[in-house]
Amino acid sequence: TRTVNAALAERLGPDWRELFVEFDDKPAAAASIGQVHRAVWHDGREVAVKVQYPGAGAALLSDLNQLARFAKVLGPLVPGLDLKPLIAELRERVSEELDYELEASAQQAHAEEFADDPDVFVPGVVHQSSQVLITEWMDGIPLSEVIANGTQEQRDRAGQLMTRFLFSGVSRTGLLHADPHPGNFRLLTGDAPDGPPEMWRLGVLDFGTVDRLPDGLPEEIGLALRLALEGDAAAVYALMREEGFVKPSIQIDPDALLEYLLPMIEPARAEEFAFDRTWIRGQAARLADRKSPLYDLGNQINLPPSYLLIHRVCLSTIGVLCQLGATVALRTELEDWVPGFLAAEDGEFDELDDLAGHEESDEVEETEEASA
Which of 117, 119, 179, 276 is catalytic? Predict the structure, then answer.
């Protein structure tokens, strides 16, 4: 408490308590770099006061610098992964997370965009200063409680709305909320706690980690998903190589790559998919089996820095949906919000065929050179 009080005095002034009608000294939530207090602002609004611990940011960045030093040691374990630029990207994103001015801007952009939305609510920003962020307070059922004790209707509605928000938000604001864990979402049942579920909304918190994508999600994501579901192994391989998921020094069999990917993207094929812990454990076991050729193939795949947060969002979202045990119409959200997932424009396949043909030609040349 003393640390937080001192931090608030330094950042809001020695008379900071006069800014509030009430201030609860007991934190409502806490994390590694700061904590949140419930309070009443001087105009009567209930607010959440987010305070960053002094020195927490510097300590976190120091840890990342230490990780960067291990990149050369870790590199041989995953030959397909280019670690150095990935760690540099991670450090840049963490630096942004420590900047409450950027967070305030991202949250306010979402609050304004979703102000009249029937499905999503984002609290507005009330005040922001160095390492202190004050936003409107939001009640609701934390997703952690829905995971633990929620009805199936609550699970399905929360899962559908979370998926919709994460895919639609980036198209509507140019910002991808990149921290989708249960603590950052609330199910808002409002005046209809007993339903129908269509009346329930999703409340979204914590915009400290966002990916700035002014043009929305890359079209290549939707295109790769569609081509994989259509079974076009050569085009998927060509596209992934072009985007940097396969380094120039690495050769992967396109059919093996498709076999690796298809079970993970099965939820995008069905009209509705029932996510559960058994399914995700099966996926993890399949990819972690050292006796399987898929294990070695996975170590050949790169993660381009520009896709780091997108990858994090996809994996984290699937994890939360499986925790919820939610049945979700994922394909509908992909069709509505992910560029490239719907039917091809004229000329698209010609370009991909040329790219795939070029990759095959290169591989033939490399094989001939090796034989010579």
Answer: 179
